[in-house]
Design a protein that fits this description.
mainly alpha, 3 helices
Amino acid sequence: MSFLTAFVTVLLAELGDKTQLATLALAAGGHARWLVFLGAALALIVSSAVAVLVWQRPRDKSCPPSGFAGAPGR
């Protein structure tokens, strides 16, 4: 269930954002579409991996996930 939840959450969060528009502009600008796709996909994988790996460490009680509730993009 966590795979499906993560997939749907990230998919909906990324639709229409600046990253998607930048990827669209690169693909429309005559660049190789598959290379643009691979670069964008790899960037999302790396940024997601960093987020997951950071939270794998023992969490400091002074910075719980609920502390990000007011962060930009939330």
